[in-house]
Design goal:
The chain has 3 domains: about 70 residues, Multidrug-efflux Transporter Regulator, Chain: A, Domain 2 (Orthogonal Bundle); about 60 residues; about 200 residues, 3-Layer(aba) Sandwich (Rossmann fold). The protein is about 50% helix and about 15% strand. It is built from 13 helices and 9 strands.
Length: about 350
């Protein structure tokens, strides 16, 4: 095809096609005799892909990277590149929602005060920026991609305490959120999918998210029917009110305290009214236990806390989570598995 032919076929101008060529996104062959560009069906597919990715807001650099993954003939890498962009779009979308909410509150404040409430507007704007920075603050200090291949084996090692109670915690979550048949569920921070797979086997239609590409790859190999999305709990890549059930096991202690509050809010956001949320994790019973627990670890001769990292606060405080859930949900209940592991259940 010549340029005017592919222009008609795709529905874009010849000028746009030349622009993408100049940016290195398209490299058609040239006819030796006259130098005219000639386009193949592969070029047409590439142009359609470029247009589609531009429509969803991807930058030219991101499109180039995605197309390079496609050119490498690795479907897995191509899908990962698209998943990464989807996750970024959801982070932008949640940020835009926050901005709209802030604007509405500013408008309301201006109406109520009958004047421009400068101090309040400044406070709202500051809060909006803080929330945006918080959504962007997640860091994988543990390198979960590297740990993925050993994850399940380590969980089965009964000598690893407190992981001996792992299966008991998953079973209790399954009982608490039942009945599951016909329900749509989300597992947040799914890792290799142990909890999501259990709930799916009990009748739920499960989706799951994780920020680790390799964890998701292993999850897919174990449970191919689960819908998997790349993303993290600070900007869950699903629309509001999408799920009947939201669960998470042993993921939230990887967050800082401000991140945890945002995470709880995000999980309720994607939960339907009347939906059920159930979280299992390492927790300290209350704030006073922090110093005694650290002293106990030191006395035991351990050189680090189980599953902790120096840049993340100590385990979540159980009473903090209960108080937050009682403020934002109903029918809040708690179960203690052992000294460190709690399960908290609530209904939206």
């Amino acid at each position: 095809m010549l340029i005017h032919e592919i222009s008609r076929k795709i529905g874009i101008t010849a000028r746009a096609i030349r622009f993408y060529e100049q940016k290195g996104l398209l490299s058609p062959a040239k006819i030796k005799e006259n130098g005219y560009r000639t386009y193949t069906e592969q070029d047409a597919w590439r142009l359609q892909t470029i247009i589609s990715l531009r429509e969803v807001g991807m930058t030219l650099d991101d499109i180039r990277q995605t197309l390079n993954q496609s050119d490498s003939s690795s479907q897995e890498e191509f899908i990962y590149a698209l998943q990464l962009q989807r996750s970024m779009l959801f982070r932008q979308w949640t940020g835009m929602k926050q901005m709209i909410d802030t604007m509405d509150r500013m408008i309301h404040a201006a109406k109520v005060n009958q004047t421009l409430p400068t101090e309040q507007l400044y406070e709202l704007a500051g809060h909006n920026k803080a929330m945006r920075d918080l959504r962007d603050s997640w860091r994988d200090h543990w390198d979960f991609d590297a740990k993925a291949s050993q994850f399940d084996r380590q969980l089965k090692d009964e000598n690893l305490s407190p992981n001996a109670a792992y299966e008991a915690a998953l079973n209790l979550i399954a009982r608490l959120v039942s009945p599951l048949i016909g329900k749509k569920g989300l597992d947040v921070g799914t890792a290799t999918g142990n909890l999501a797979g259990k709930l799916q086997q009990l009748g739920a239609s499960m989706s799951a998210i994780d920020q680790s590409k390799q964890m998701l790859k292993l999850c897919e190999s174990k449970y191919p029917q689960i819908e998997l999305k790349l993303g993290n709990v600070l900007a869950i890549p699903f629309m509001d009110g999408h799920f009947d059930i939201v669960v998470s096991s042993f993921a939230l202690h990887h967050l800082t305290q401000p991140q945890r509050t945002l995470a709880w809010d995000e999980m309720l956001r994607v939960l339907k009214p009347g939906g059920r949320i159930c979280l299992a994790d390492y927790m300290l019973s209350d704030a006073s236990e922090q110093s005694t627990y650290i002293a106990k670890i030191i006395a035991s001769g351990a050189n680090k806390l189980p599953m902790m990292h120096e840049e993340v606060e100590l385990y979540p405080i159980h009473t903090d989570l209960i108080a937050w859930m009682k403020q934002h949900a109903s029918q809040v209940a708690s179960h203690r598995i052992n000294e460190l592991i709690y399960i908290v259940y609530a209904q939206k």
